[in-house]
Amino acid sequence: MDDKTAELRDVFLDATGTETVTERQSAARGSLVDAVDPERVTARLRELLETMRERYDFETGLETEAYLHLVDGFHAGATDADLAERLGTDVGTVVRARLDCHLVRADDRDHPAFAAIRERIVDGADDEAVATDLDCDPEAVAHVRRVVAADREATRANERFRDAFADLLTDADLSGRLARDSREDGLREATEDIETDVSL
Q1: Which residue from 36, 57, 89, 187 has the highest number of Cβ atoms inside 10 Å of its Cβ?
Q2: Residue 3 is assigned to a structural domain of this protein
Q3: Is residue 126 assigned to a domain?
Q4: 105 Cβ contact partners less than 8 Å away, ≥ 6 residues apart
């Protein structure tokens, strides 16, 4: 122990009468384990969906609760077929509802003529004309139009809704994993009342 350390030690002893620092650490409010309140997440999702419904023309007659489950399922990795089964509807309705929410899958753009169809749509051509000119299925053209509309709306909204959904549901999923891990490892109890002893 050098002179400076010894001097500091003596000052500490004079002030506290002990050689050990004991710091109690209680679990802080708002910790990662309990920071995400599922009810708040659900309420915020519902609020976002109701705002979207007011701002945009939703194509389906699904209730807000169904849209809520759809958005949640989408971010959890559910397929359109999975979502259709859960919601008791058909895949086509799920796809339209998903695009209502600006949720576009990579395979929504998989059509070999996607770029050409999109270009014609942007130029103002109707579905029938595009289908005829490009020798495409009219349903495929209609789907591309919905994808283009979803992307346009999302861009004009500065990706607000897409980002909000992802942030809310990613945080909720993280919190769920942390909570599960905490329960399994006993970390919650271990962090409620920790004493850290530092010997000087």
Answers
A1: 36
A2: no
A3: yes
A4: 80, 98
Return the SS3 of 123.
coil
* Angle at which helices 38-55 and 160-185 cross, to 10°: 170
* Interval 71-112: pLDDT, tens: 999 999 999 999 999 999 999 999 999 999 999 999 999 999
Residue 61 inside a domain? The answer is no
- Domain contains 112: yes
Q: Please report the DSSP string for 159-174 in residue order.
A: THHHHHHHHHHHHHHH
Q: Which residues of 80-109 are buried (b: 16+ CB within 10 A; e: fewer)?
A: beebbeebebeeebbbbbbbbbbbbeeebe
Task: For 178, list phi and psi in degrees, rounded to 5.
Answer: -65, -40
Asked if residues 102 and 55 have their Cβ atoms less than 8 Å apart, the reply is no
Please report where in the chains the tokens 């945080």 appear, as a residue. 171
Helix ranges (H only) for 56-159 are 64-75, 80-87, 91-100, 114-122, 127-134, 138-156
pLDDT tens digits along 136-194? 999 999 999 999 999 999 999 999 999 999 999 986 554 444 344 443 444 344 444 44
